[in-house]
């Protein structure tokens, strides 16, 4: 059978992971760049960038420090491009969270520079992917941009990531677990072998997160923490690279994109909004698609998300006082033509989405007896009956 031509940016050219991965990677940096733009944002991680700058200077490099002022937006990118060009930078080292990593990748892509990503949390897989999300200055999602390649070097330093708030790992778990619920809907019936493998890897990822997520949160730096942090920040990105454009995001990320239109949600992390989007997608599958297993999957996820202190309701998102107009604006954005939400196998309008968002936790209460994670089958993966 002849298949259509596909191009995949699957993985960084090199990955270094583990304790002190930053230090272990220093000798490789001079071969990538001599005058890197060292990009960051948060004051909470400024000391990490200061130390990184000192390390680069000791290598004989000439780093130029720069700060992202907003989310990854065109205003920031134009300013940073001018700084990089004035400073004759030949590479970008993005050290921070997802917005910083996206901005660094996109800047390197546009200027044709080497790209090094150094995540300071496991909140997203942005350090891995050949994709960047663009936002407005106010923090509202605008679009995503496909890049020509993944980073040249990804440094996943456990010691750096351990300094992040625990909340960031919960966000990463929610964002990563969405891979299964979205890819299985959009690509589960694909005849493409690579896409099939990516979908099955997403299932394995889900199993691991359900089985070890709570243990990872309870013991930062422990064995479960390492597996879950790397699953969230690395494996999730691999799945997207392997599956390519046909292993798509669906309603969970569309809901995230809609929620970013409201300033009241800007305090939430990416994965916190995506996790709520997963529950909303499953509710849509239950209400509109008649999928019995979607209801079962949603009931399985609710106590698990609750244990991770992830938002489950509009109130949990900070929208208890949101007006109907506000909620309608979220839904209208999420169902715009071209939205990933339309990869669902049934039509969804804004009213359908609002109903699902309001009722994500319907018939599910804290006192219910459902376990936070189902028991594994004999071979170590979750029983097939638990899959949507």
Any overview of this molecule?
There is one protein chain. The protein is of the alpha/beta class and 388 residues long. The chain has helices at residues 21-25, 46-58, 74-86, 98-111, 158-162, 166-187, 193-218, 223-243, 251-259, 270-287, 292-307, 324-334, 350-358, and strands at 15-18, 36-40, 64-67, 91-96, 114-119, 131-135, 141-146, 153-157. Helix 4 links the parallel strand 4 (91-96) and strand 5. The longest helix has 26 residues, at 193-218. The two termini are 30 Å apart. Residues 365-388 have low confidence and may be disordered.
In short:
This protein is α/β, with parallel strands linked by helices and 388 residues long. Helices cover 47% and strands 11% of the residues.
The backbone outline, from C-alpha atoms, is globular
Number of domains: 3
Question: What is the average per-residue confidence, as pLDDT, rounded to a whole number?
Answer: 91
Can you tell me the CATH architecture of the largest domain? 3-Layer(aba) Sandwich
Main sheet, how many strands, which sense, barrel? 6 strands, parallel
Q: Order of SSEs, N→C?
A: EHEHEHEHEEEEHHHHHHHHH
Strand content is: 5-15%
Which residue ranges are poorly predicted, with pLDDT under 50 across at least 5 consecutive positions?
365-388
Ends: how far apart? Answer: 30 Å
User: If you compute it from the alpha carbons, what radius of gyration comes out, rounded to the nearest whole angstrom?
Assistant: 20 Å
Class from helix and strand fractions: alpha/beta
- CATH class of the largest domain, named Alpha Beta
Number of helices: 13
Q: Tell me roughly what share of residues is in helical segments.
A: 40-55%
Count all strands and give the number.
8
Strand order of the largest sheet: 1-8-5-4-2-3
CATH topology of the largest domain: Rossmann fold
């Amino acid at each position: 059978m002849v298949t259509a031509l596909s191009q995949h940016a699957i993985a960084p050219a090199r990955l270094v992971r583990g304790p002190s991965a930053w230090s272990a990677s220093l000798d490789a940096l001079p071969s990538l760049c001599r005058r890197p733009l060292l990009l960051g944002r948060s004051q909470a991680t400024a000391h990490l960038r200061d130390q990184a700058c000192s390390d680069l200077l000791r290598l004989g490099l000439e780093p130029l420090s720069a700060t992202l002022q907003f989310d990854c937006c065109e205003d920031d990118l134009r300013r940073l491009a001018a700084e990089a060009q004035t400073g004759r930078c030949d590479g970008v080292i993005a050290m921070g969270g997802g917005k910083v990593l996206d901005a660094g990748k996109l800047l390197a892509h546009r200027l044709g520079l080497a790209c090094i990503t150094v995540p300071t949390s496991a909140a997203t897989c942005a350090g891995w992917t050949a994709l960047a999300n663009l936002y407005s200055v106010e923090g509202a999602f605008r679009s995503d941009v496909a890049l020509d390649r993944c980073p040249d070097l990804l440094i996943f330093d456990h010691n750096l990531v351990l300094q992040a708030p625990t909340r960031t790992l919960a966000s990463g778990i929610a964002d990563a677990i969405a891979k299964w619920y979205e890819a299985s809907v959009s690509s589960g019936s694909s005849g493409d072998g690579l896409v099939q493998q990516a979908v099955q890897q997403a299932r394995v990822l889900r199993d691991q997160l359900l089985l070890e997520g709570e243990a990872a949160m309870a013991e930062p730096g422990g064995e479960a923490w390492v597996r879950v942090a790397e699953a969230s920040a690395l494996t999730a990105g691999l799945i997207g690279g392997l599956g390519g454009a046909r292993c798509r995001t669906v309603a969970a990320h569309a809901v995230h994109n809609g929620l970013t239109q409201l300033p009241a949600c800007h305090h939430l992390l990416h994965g916190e909004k995506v996790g709520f989007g997963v529950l909303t997608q499953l509710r849509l599958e239950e209400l509109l698609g008649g999928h019995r297993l979607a209801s079962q999957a949603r009931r399985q996820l609710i106590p698990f998300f609750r244990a991770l202190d992830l938002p489950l309701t509009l109130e949990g998102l900070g929208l208890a006082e949101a007006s109907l107009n506000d909620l309608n604006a979220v839904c209208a954005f999420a169902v715009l033509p071209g939205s990933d939400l339309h990869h669902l196998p049934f039509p969804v309008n804004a009213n359908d989405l609002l109903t699902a968002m309001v009722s994500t936790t319907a018939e599910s209460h804290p006192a219910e007896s459902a376990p936070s994670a189902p028991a594994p089958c004999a071979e170590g993966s979750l029983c097939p009956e638990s899959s949507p």
